[in-house]
């Protein structure tokens, strides 16, 4: 009986952090709608500052789950400005981050780096170029567009107007911004053999070596960012590697959110190879940028090969965990916000209205031609 109870409790472990992040979107969206209403009567910079505070609080809740709760060891690699990025003080930079993509955890890595950048962290700067279908996620899909995320279509006709509008908004917004782009366009897994074959066929036609750890990247999103973000300071080239992928039979199989947060501590490591590239060293001509992007991913291929073949912690810096004092206040705030409707009928009605408004918020994105 005791063994069965222990196994049942262990099986429920992933539900707690997942539920905390998912359910917190209701009070988060409720606050965001209020700020959206306030933005009609206050100066733009005031509304944007309020939104940044709210968004930063939620990102710190995410850091509590993915760092403090998971107990992951984070190793930073790279000699060209990687460590300096985390030590940089003063006004944060405006950057585009280019990363490989192999897990639904990948998005949190820039947030981890941002928390260590600037005088008081830079989590509010984080944005992503995301696939168009995410706009259908209730509440979340509407909000991230308001904060400067950019929806792009993976299939069908490319519609440039909403993308260019968002880039213009970012370029003119209160700095800083960190825009994350996944040039591969989809998550790579060892199970997606046809995807790897298709990628290598394209590389072969251009006389390039095949790659197994990354896919052949597309440079379209990066091209749009470089052409429209005149305030860019640098490109951060990020290569993400998970310690669990060094386990027997796990090569090419990155952990998901449950495994990353609540899996066994053995091999629970996150290895980040970070290189800062000044914007003046990045080509902007279309063909040159495409070749440059492919070369960057060929370098990622070599970095990941070395990760599998050597002791990955050699020559790296073990980053201290983000302080609990930095993440606990946000966690307590959202926990209290989730408990509030049990004690307040008014808050309960507000949350129900927020949930009920989800279809209207999605419709708003379409009416405004945001997607």
Automatic annotation (TrEMBL):
A molecular function (GO) term: acyltransferase activity
Lineage, top-rank taxon, reads Eukaryota
Taken from the record, one Pfam family name reads: Acyltransferase
For the keyword Manganese, the answer is: no
Domain Phospholipid/glycerol acyltransferase, first and last residues per copy = 95-219
Q: Which InterPro entries match?
A: Acyltransf_C, Plipid/glycerol_acylTrfase
Tell me the keywords, alphabetical order. Acyltransferase, Membrane, Transferase, Transmembrane, Transmembrane helix
From its record, what is one biological process in GO terms?
A: phosphatidylinositol acyl-chain remodeling
User: Would I find Flavoprotein among this entry's keywords?
Assistant: no
Q: Which GO terms describe its cellular component?
A: endoplasmic reticulum; mitochondrion
Residues that span the membrane, as ranges: 20-42
Q: Which family does it belong to?
A: Belongs to the 1-acyl-sn-glycerol-3-phosphate acyltransferase family.
Protein name as it appears in the record: Phospholipid/glycerol acyltransferase domain-containing protein
The species this protein belongs to is: Caenorhabditis brenneri (Nematode worm)
